[in-house]
């Protein structure tokens, strides 16, 4: 227990306050939303967030992909402030709730707080067994590299030994990603990224490939991997081959082979440790009737994986904990977890 240092894991991303409510199908139709979809908010969706709070009993959760992963890692690590999360919020009530929710589970936050844009929100509209997500990035989009340059914030980067950033942050501050990635590489630390979503590989390949030489561990699912392969002209849809090809991409610290982890829903997770060594790890089977909400499963997997990685555990243990975390999260609504972590 005592070997886990404070601030050992540093995450940076788009903090969103998830506002979750049970709604009727008519409410989705009112805003032109589809069941089981995830979109970015347009102008027509903006009044919805306040309206939800006024109309329905809502639940608030600290969300956003990277922050979800950091929260899950923190839950498993148990040591308060073993993790740090950085991102941009607004100077408003939702920003306060977000901070309270993240710090409430033990995460240390160092948000960039500004008053041009309100705190980013994600409406999670639950309709029967379906869930429609509508994200309004707002403040999350305003993150500035200058925030990291502040001595108290750079000290948090220096304190950490492991770094995780989901690909969504490539749309906000590639400059900040470069700074953290280079620091990790120059100091023999571990830098991990997530592919995040197919649209990142489609539209943000340039900043992604600028970060790639510094990436020690890359995580993604089979859909994201397939789109990455297409965009890079790998000429294959075979997940194992894609993992090997990503592992073989140029790397600054070439003495440490790149690890590529690709999850495939209810199929085995594929791990390439360098371009020649591939292992398949079966997931924990779960009856369909026990699945409540698969959204957040990928974030949870990363959180579980990271919790073991920072303890210097072997890769199979990291993957096992990733599977454990994803299994727990999909049996609950939203990226939430019980009080007790039972992972051994």
- C-alpha termini separation: 13 Å
**Could you state the oligomeric state of the chains shown?**
single chain
Low-confidence segments, ≥5 residues, pLDDT <50?
none
Element-by-element helix/strand order: EEHEHEHEEHEEEEHHEHEHHEHHEEEHH
Please count the helical segments: 13
Report the portion of residues in β strands.
15-25%
List how many beta strands DSSP finds. Answer: 16
**Helix/strand/pairing category:** alpha/beta
Backbone shape? globular
Radius of gyration: 19 Å
| Mean pLDDT level | 94
The main sheet comes to: 9 strands, mixed
With strands numbered from the N-terminus, the spatial order across the biggest sheet is 7-5-1-11-12-13-14-15-16
Helix content: 25-40%
Which descriptors apply to this entry?
single chain, 344 residues, alpha/beta, 9-stranded mixed beta sheet, 5-stranded mixed beta sheet, 37% helix, globular
Could you explain how this protein is built, in words?
It is a single chain. The chain has 344 residues and is an alpha/beta fold. 37% of the residues lie in helices and 22% in strands. The protein is built from 13 helices and 16 strands. The protein has helices at 25-30, 48-55, 65-77, 93-104, 145-149, 151-159, 174-186, 198-203, 205-211, 222-231, 239-247, 297-309, 315-329, and strands spanning 9-12, 16-22, 38-40, 59-63, 83-86, 88-90, 108-109, 112-114, 121-127, 130-136, 162-166, 190-194, 217-221, 259-264, 267-273, 278-281. It has a nine-stranded mixed β-sheet with strand order 7-5-1-11-12-13-14-15-16. A hairpin with a 2-residue loop joins strand 14 and strand 15. The longest helix has 15 residues, at 315-329. It is globular. The mean pLDDT is 94.
């Amino acid at each position: 227990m005592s070997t886990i240092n404070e601030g050992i894991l540093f995450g940076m991303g788009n903090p969103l306050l998830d506002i979750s409510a049970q709604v009727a199908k008519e409410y989705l139709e009112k805003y032109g939303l589809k069941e089981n979809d995830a979109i970015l908010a347009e102008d027509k969706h903006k009044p919805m967030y306040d309206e939800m709070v006024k109309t329905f009993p809502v639940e608030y959760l600290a969300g956003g992909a990277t922050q979800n992963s950091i929260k899950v890692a923190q839950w498993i690590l148990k040591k308060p402030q073993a993790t740090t999360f950085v991102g941009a919020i607004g100077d408003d009530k939702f920003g306060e709730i977000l901070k309270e929710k993240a710090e409430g589970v033990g995460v240390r936050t160092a948000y960039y707080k500004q008053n041009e844009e309100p705190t980013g929100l994600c409406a999670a509209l639950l309709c029967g067994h379906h869930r429609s997500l509508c994200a309004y990035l707002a403040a999350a989009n305003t993150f500035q590299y200058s925030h990291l340059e502040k001595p108290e914030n750079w000290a948090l980067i220096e304190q950490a030994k492991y770094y995780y950033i989901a690909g969504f942050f490539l749309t906000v501050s590639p400059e900040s990603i470069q700074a953290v990635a280079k620091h990790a590489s120059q100091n023999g630390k571990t830098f991990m990224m997530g592919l995040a979503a197919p649209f990142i590989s489609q539209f943000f390949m340039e900043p992604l490939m600028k970060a790639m030489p510094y990436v020690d561990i890359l995580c993604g699912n089979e859909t994201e991997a397939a789109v990455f392969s297409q965009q890079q002209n790998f000429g294959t849809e075979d997940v194992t081959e894609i993992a090997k090809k990503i592992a073989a991409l140029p790397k600054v610290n070439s003495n440490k082979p790149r690890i590529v982890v690709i999850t495939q829903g209810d199929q085995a997770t594929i791990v390439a440790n360098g371009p020649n060594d591939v292992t398949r790890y079966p997931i924990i089977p779960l009856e369909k009737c026990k699945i409540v909400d698969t959204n957040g499963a990928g974030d949870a997997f990363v959180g579980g994986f990271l919790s073991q990685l920072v303890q210097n555990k072997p890769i199979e243990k990291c993957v096992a904990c990733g599977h454990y975390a994803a299994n727990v999260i999909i049996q609950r609504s939203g990226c939430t977890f019980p009080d007790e972590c039972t992972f051994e």
